[in-house]
Amino acid sequence: MSHHLTAGQRAMLENTLRLRLQDLLRQRDLHQEGRSRVDHARQVLTQDDDDAPARASDREVDQALTDLEQIELREVTHALERVGDDDYGLCEDCSATIPFDRLRLNPAARRCVSCQGAREGSGPPAR
Hints:
The protein is mainly alpha-helical. The chain has helices at about 5-30, 35-45, 50-80, 100-105, 115-120. About 65% of the residues lie in helices and about 0% in strands.
């Protein structure tokens, strides 16, 4: 199989992924104040103040942010697991090469722009 990424490019992408993983873990710990996700949600629910509607809204925002953090954490972890594999940087849907510039912007990218656009409903239909 032809390797479209050089060893240097892979090393750079792996380093970027490792740094992002550290940032996400630090952000999660700060966001949850060292508690598990369940304990953090319980704490948000039981805050003792008189503004229940605002607290409900804050809780929804808090949970959405936590969900997004968890999704990105999984994506980055998965990318780190496969960065050394021959198929890293190939689209999971069509096997096309994902350009290095796209990977540099998002080293966890699993699809080419065309397939990602089709998946999100903003690109050409899937082949």
